């Protein structure tokens, strides 16, 4: 008798455990589904809209004859979207071209040498990022107007640098900190100059950090909206500001804006996916330090 | 060349650029904030008025409205993002093939332009043909007739949802890397001791995540206080001024009404608010001994 109830109890307990496991499994699946829906449904919907003919935009239908017309429209003389693509590319290219060498050298110096006020400097550049950027735009607007460089890509490059260099220094310094000094010292003993050591030994080893910083600065510059909105109005307009051209008198031309949006976000999404792992590691390490 | 000068030489370009591009305008901006200066009246800086612009803000109901909107927006965004990011982190830190695929594409929303996201939300919340509008109406019937961007509360809620959408992936990834770094033995020991899932969550997981929670809160607070792009493209501060966060008020004061003096003063007030928040977190960080 006794042994039977014990066996039954065990069976019941096992059953309870398995129902609990199934319940946990269901909760997990539903949770994941919710997350995926929340994060990716908007992207999916915009991507879908980019291929819709104008007649289908105002319906929720998923089945329609896909068309590439929206894409050819945005590059036609109606919008000349390639001009804004060009402006954005120029701004990003020169911002990165200046940011990276400057930040690598500064990060190396801060990481490797004892200096008075080093901590203060690191904290100060972090603090500049706490301050809302709009505070800086006000004097810049006036200066640029006086110098006659409002509405030029040069103006955008200048203001972006104040944004990218602090982040790049923090990110790259974190990586250089983790590279052992011995290897460089061996190079120095062999008689190579400091610059040679930086170029031939340090740079290859710090590459993951530099790539992370590059992608991060690329994304923030490519997506930068406030400076472009305030400092440009015609010649130097970049992609995010150009999106407003799809807002017409009779409302927004959503299918064309969606197509433009897809073309616009393509580079950042691709680059971000390529360096995703290092990026997350680098960002959280930088933040903790 | 000796190390003595070399190290400063390496630092010099960064020092010069940041000095001229961030420090100088900051000081200049403060100087402007002490003056009366409307760009439509004069191209030259006006009369020195001391702290009058700051005093003007204290008596300006538009300013106080913006402070309230900013605080509500920031607190809601930070809290919802962190709480959801912990949940997402727990969900997505398991070792399963489809979950590791999700982790790989999780960063995508973070790479999208916030300005574009703002427009997209406007599209999807459209009362006539918006997908979100339809879904919300289906899930919460009382909201089915409401124009989402047309009433103050729903517009602010929409704004919070945009900010959460933008930052959730990145903050989740921070928690995922934290959770995957936690030692597995602790969990196994707790399970053997018969701890329930809830106990494990509150007694083990959350305390171990505390340093990341603090850092994520600092980042999120900074980002929320500065939020600008999706506000311009989605609500432009409306309806009325119900979504006019301080950053937007500064923008419209300075670049729509060209009141540079008052705009700069408002900018400094926002800067002081941000630094205040950061100091509060920093003190907790230092007190908790998590600063390594």
TrEMBL record, chain A:
Membrane topology qualifier: Multi-pass membrane protein
CDD domains linked to this entry: TM_PBP2
Primary site of residence: membrane
Transmembrane segments: 30-51, 84-108, 120-142, 154-176, 197-222, 253-275
Annotated compartments: Cell membrane
Keywords recorded for this protein, A-Z: Cell membrane, Membrane, Transmembrane, Transmembrane helix, Transport
GO cellular component, one term: plasma membrane
Protein name: Carbohydrate ABC transporter membrane protein 2 (CUT1 family)
Originating organism: Sinobaca qinghaiensis
Automatic annotation (TrEMBL), chain B:
Subcellular location(s) per record: Cell membrane
Statement: the UniProt record of this protein carries the keyword Transmembrane: yes
Protein name in UniProt: Carbohydrate ABC transporter membrane protein 1 (CUT1 family)
Provenance organism: Sinobaca qinghaiensis
GO biological process, one term: transmembrane transport
Domain ABC transmembrane type-1 positions: 67-281
UniProt GO cellular component terms: plasma membrane
SUPFAM superfamilies listed in its UniProt record: MetI-like (SSF161098)
InterPro entries on file: MetI-like, MetI-like_sf
Gene3D superfamilies assigned to the protein according to its UniProt record, in alphabetical order: MetI-like
Keywords: Cell membrane, Membrane, Transmembrane, Transmembrane helix, Transport
Spans traversing the lipid bilayer: 6-27, 67-92, 98-119, 156-179, 200-225, 262-282
Membrane topology: Multi-pass membrane protein
Similarity comment: family membership: Belongs to the binding-protein-dependent transport system permease family.
Domain of life: Bacteria
Source taxonomy: Bacteria, Bacillati, Bacillota, Bacilli, Bacillales
């Amino acid at each position: 008798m006794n042994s039977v109830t014990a066996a039954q109890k065990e069976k019941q307990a096992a059953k309870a455990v398995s129902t609990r496991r199934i319940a946990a499994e269901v909760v997990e699946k539903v949770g994941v589904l919710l997350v995926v829906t929340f994060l990716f449904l908007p992207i999916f919907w915009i991507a879908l809209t980019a291929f819709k003919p104008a007649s289908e935009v105002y319906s929720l239908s998923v089945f329609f004859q896909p068309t590439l017309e929206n894409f050819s429209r945005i590059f036609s003389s109606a919008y000349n979207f390639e001009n804004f693509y060009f402006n954005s590319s120029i701004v990003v290219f020169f911002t990165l071209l200046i940011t990276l060498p400057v930040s690598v050298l500064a990060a190396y110096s801060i990481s490797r040498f004892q200096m008075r006020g080093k901590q203060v400097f690191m904290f100060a550049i972090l603090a500049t990022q706490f301050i809302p950027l709009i505070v800086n735009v006000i004097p810049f607007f006036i200066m640029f107007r006086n110098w006659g460089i409002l509405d030029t890509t040069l103006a955008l490059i200048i203001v972006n640098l104040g944004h990218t260099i602090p982040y790049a220094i923090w990110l790259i310094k974190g990586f250089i900190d983790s590279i052992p000094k011995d290897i460089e010292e061996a190079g120095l003993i062999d008689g190579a100059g400091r610059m040679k050591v930086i170029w031939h030994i340090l740079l290859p080893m710090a590459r993951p950090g530099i790539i992370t910083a590059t992608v991060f600065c690329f994304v923030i510059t490519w997506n930068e909206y406030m400076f472009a909105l305030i400092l440009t109005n015609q010649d130097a307009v970049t992609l995010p500001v150009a999106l407003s051209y799809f807002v017409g008198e009779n409302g927004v031309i959503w299918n064309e804006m969606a197509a433009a949006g897809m073309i616009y976000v393509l580079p950042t999404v691709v680059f971000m996916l390529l360096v995703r792992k290092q990026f997350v590691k680098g960002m959280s390490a930088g933040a903790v330090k | 060349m000796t190390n003595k000068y070399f190290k400063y030489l390496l630092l010099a370009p960064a020092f010069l650029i940041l000095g001229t591009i961030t420090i100088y305008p900051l000081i200049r901006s403060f100087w402007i904030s002490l003056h009366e200066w409307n760009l439509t009246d004069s191209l030259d800086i006006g009369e020195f008025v001391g702290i009058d612009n700051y005093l003007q803000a204290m008596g300006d109901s538009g300013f106080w409205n913006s402070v309230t909107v900013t605080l509500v927006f920031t607190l809601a965004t930070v809290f919802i993002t962190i709480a959801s990011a912990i949940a997402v982190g727990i969900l997505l830190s398991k070792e399963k093939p489809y979950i590791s695929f999700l982790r790989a594409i999780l960063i995508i929303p973070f790479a999208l332009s916030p300005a574009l996201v703002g427009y997209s939300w406007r599209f999807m919340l459209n009362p006539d043909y918006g997908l979100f509008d339809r879904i919300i109406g289906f899930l919460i019937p009382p909201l089915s007739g409401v124009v989402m961007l047309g009433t103050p509360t729903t517009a602010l809620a929409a704004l919070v949802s945009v900010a959460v959408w933008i930052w959730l992936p990145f903050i989740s990834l921070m928690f995922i890397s934290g959770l995957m770094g936690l030692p597995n033995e602790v969990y196994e020991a707790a399970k053997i001791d018969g701890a329930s899932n809830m106990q494990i969550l509150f007694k083990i997981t959350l305390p171990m995540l505390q340093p990341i929670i603090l850092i994520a809160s600092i980042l999120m607070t900074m980002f929320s206080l500065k939020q600008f792009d999706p506000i311009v493209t989605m609500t432009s501060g409306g309806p009325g001024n119900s979504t006019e966060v301080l950053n937007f008020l500064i923008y419209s004061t300075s670049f729509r009404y060209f009141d540079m003096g008052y705009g700069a003063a408002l900018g400094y007030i926002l800067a002081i608010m941000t630094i205040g928040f950061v100091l509060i977190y920093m003190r907790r960080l230092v007190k908790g001994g998590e600063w390594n």
